[in-house]
Amino acid sequence: MLDYNFYKEKLGKKFAIVNGELVEDPQGLLTVTETFTDYSIYLSKIEGKASLIIPDLAYVGKTYKTRSTDCISICCKWHDNQYGTNLQKVYKDTTHEKFKKYFKQGMSLWFEDHGFLKANTIKIGSFIVYQYAPNLPANSHIAICIEPNKILQHIPWKYSSIDTIENEKVFAIYDYTG
């Protein structure tokens, strides 16, 4: 939940979402405002609440929910929209038991079981098994390359974001062949 009093002091300022967190940035996508408008941090005086207002079809600024708006689902959604694939359905059809196995043993297994080939280089549309936190397994997070040196990712319990690739965090690269 966003702190209304904090953002009230930032009225008119811009924020970006970097690695899932809101960061003040004069070039940021979001503006703190008391007007309900897309791509804003909206301050409701009546409720005393601050809320992100993001269009439904946007990829950034989504709240995290396992198996619904998590790292795999947002990457599959982007890929489906760009290439006409049906990876969201493939992911949704994965049972919870199998998903737990993939998470524990490594997300590379999900790719290997679903028509992906391991690649040596990252290109637009490549899925990346990525380490998002040093204390977690290097193979437990997914991102997708959406433009040169940029990934779409959804770090658990943060906001979805478009970030610069940190090559030292890349565990594996997969391209969809199905």
Amount of helix = 10-25%
How is the largest sheet built, in terms of strand order? 6-11-7-8-9-10
Could you tell me how far the N terminus lies from the C terminus, measured between alpha carbons in angstroms?
39 Å
Structure annotation, total helices: 5
Q: Spans of 5+ residues with little confidence (pLDDT < 50)?
A: none
* Rg measurement, Å: 17 Å
Mind summarizing the main beta sheet? 6 strands, antiparallel
N to C succession of SSEs: HEEEEEHHHHEEEEEE
Beta-sheet strand percentage? 25-35%
Question: Structural class, from helix and strand content?
Answer: alpha+beta
Overall average pLDDT: 92
Overall outline: elongated
Count of distinct strands: 11
Secondary-structure blueprint of this entry?
Elements: H1 4-8, E1 14-18, E2 21-24, E3 30-33, E4 40-44, E5 49-53, H2 71-83, H3 87-92, H4 96-105, H5 108-113, E6 116-119, E7 127-130, E8 141-147, E9 150-154, E10 160-164, E11 170-176
Parallel strand pairs: 3-4
Antiparallel strand pairs: 1-2, 1-3, 4-5, 6-11, 7-8, 7-11, 8-9, 9-10
Structure, described:
- By secondary structure, this protein is an alpha+beta fold.
- 22% of the residues lie in helices and 31% in strands.
- It contains 5 helices and 11 strands; from the N terminus they run H-E-E-E-E-E-H-H-H-H-E-E-E-E-E-E.
- The protein has helices at 4-8, 71-83, 87-92, 96-105, 108-113; strands at residues 14-18, 21-24, 30-33, 40-44, 49-53, 116-119, 127-130, 141-147, 150-154, 160-164, 170-176.
- The strands form 2 sheets. The chain has a 6-stranded antiparallel β-sheet with strand order 6-11-7-8-9-10. It has a 5-stranded mixed β-sheet with strand order 2-1-3-4-5.
- Strand 8 (141-147) and strand 9 form a beta hairpin.
- The longest helix is centred in the middle third of the chain and has 13 residues, at 71-83.
- The chain is elongated.
- The model has no long low-confidence stretch (mean pLDDT 92).
